[in-house]
Design brief:
The complex is a heterodimer of chains A (288) and B (95). With 288 residues, chain A is an all-beta fold. Chain A is built from no helices and 21 strands. By secondary structure, chain B is an alpha+beta fold. Chain B is built from one helix and five strands; from the N terminus they run βββββα. Chain B has one helix at 79-94; strands spanning 3-6, 12-14, 46-49, 60-62, 67-69. The chains are: A mainly beta (288), B alpha+beta (95). Chain A binds chain B through residues 48-51, 77-82, 106, 109, 121-122, 159-168, 170-175, 177-179, 258-259, 261, 263, 265, 269, 277, and chain B through 6, 9-14, 16-29, 31-32, 38, 46, 48-50, 52, 54-55, 57-58, 80, 83-84, 87.
Chain lengths: 288, 95
């Protein structure tokens, strides 16, 4: 079987701790984040989850050689808009910053950026971004050696949305909220025709809030008192009506910016016709 | 989850998705006119967040004709909008 490992002569230290020489006085911290009293630690959080607390820890080396530790808690709003806190700094070296969120449940729904800034009010200047990224389960943002990730990097989050049930005779219209970029993965709804005699032709329109950027339809009419289920998604191909199910063609990886709308536009829609609430899956990146 | 009816377009919706994310309603445009143009409603409600106003938290874009609670009669509007309005009022008072 195996033999005893052979150790080259002289490879082991003669005494533990005797080889490494530390300079006990005037040592330079191993990080380059020197700050003064005119600077702030800027904490920016963009969030889509309810009841979330973001905690930021800061460790600093002060001029007298002491090490200070502080922590701040933020409860960010859930509207995906920017939440900010500027913390005045003392002169010294920032040794460590770490950011955690609790509870950690959903993937890529909370983004945090920690920076050193100078000035205040309208005259803020970013001098250094320390760390930036999504706060996820089992991970923390940190400085040094932490990530510098853009909001639009990575796989994003998957959001399952139940939209608005339109009033009778009204169209479906879903608007991309402020503060996100969406890529549509799947979208489905039904149209139940009233007894009024007419051939309805539902079409799908994507617009930027005003101008149409994509439109599609299908050639089979929905007659009185019928119900069709319509579905489309990322890179679907149009097929004919089968057992009252309709699949519409839709582009691949179509990025939808804030204010874009996905809506129906129906030829011969009658006053008593009823669309269901659309159910849709979106790949979402926060976008501040 | 609370259900609301938009007084402008008569659409009904929940203000919260199953995972707790807020849902922001915006009214659809009106049917196309004879020129094929789909005009917006005069009293259109749009709950998406407006543009930032300096350091102040932005509010929703348009109240429109308001909403009527369907399931939670004690609410006058989605709870997240009430919280947002309180935060905006507090910031304006501090300025």
């Amino acid at each position: 079987m195996g033999s005893t490992p052979q150790v080259p002569e002289g490879a082991l230290p003669t005494a533990a701790g005797a080889l490494l020489k530390l300079q006990p006085h005037g040592a330079t911290p191993p990080v380059n984040a020197y700050v003064t009293q005119t600077q702030f630690l800027q904490i920016l959080v963009f969030n889509a989850i309810a009841n979330l607390t973001v905690t930021v820890y800061l460790q600093m080396l002060l001029p007298d050689g002491s090490i200070s530790q502080n922590a701040w808690n933020l409860t960010p709003s859930t509207t995906r808009s920017q939440n900010g806190l500027n913390v005045p700094l003392a002169e010294g070296f920032i040794l460590e910053v770490s950011v955690l969120s609790t509870p950690q449940q959903a993937l890529n729904r909370t983004f945090c950026k920690i920076s050193i800034i100078s000035g205040s009010g309208g005259g803020i200047n970013n001098s250094q971004v320390l760390c930036a990224g999504y706060l996820n389960k089992g991970t923390a943002l940190s400085y040094p050696n932490g990530p510098l990730i853009s909001m639009s990097d990575g796989a994003g989050a998957v959001v399952d949305v139940t939209g608005t049930t339109p009033g009778a005779g009204a169209e479906i219209s879903e608007t991309v909220p402020t503060g996100v970029i969406w890529t549509l993965k799947a979208f489905s709804f039904t149209l139940t025709a009233s007894a009024a005699v007419a051939n309805r032709f539902p079409n799908i329109t994507v617009d930027d809030g005003a101008n149409i950027v994509f439109a599609t339809g299908q050639g089979s009419a929905l007659a009185a008192s019928g119900t069709f289920r319509f579905s489309f998604g990322d890179n679907t191909q149009a097929v004919g009506v089968f057992n009252n199910f309709v699949v519409l063609g839709f582009p691949s990886a179509l990025r939808l910016m804030p204010g874009y709308r996905i809506r129906t536009s129906t030829t011969n829609l009658q006053a008593g016709d009823q669309y269901s609430a659309p159910q849709y899956l979106m790949q979402e990146w926060l976008f501040g | 989850m609370p259900i609301f009816r938009c007084n402008a377009c008569k659409g009904t919706y929940s203000d919260t998705l199953r995972d707790g994310t807020v849902y922001m309603h915006a009214c659809p445009p009106l049917p196309p006119d004879e020129r094929g143009i789909e005009p917006e409603r005069e009293n259109k409600r749009d709950e998406t967040i407006g543009t930032a106003r300096g350091n102040l938290t932005p509010g929703i874009r348009s109240e429109g004709a308001g909403v009527t609670p369907v399931s939670h009669k004690q609410l006058s509007e989605p709870a997240w909008i009430t919280r947002l309005k309180k935060q905006i009022a507090k910031e304006e008072e501090e300025q």
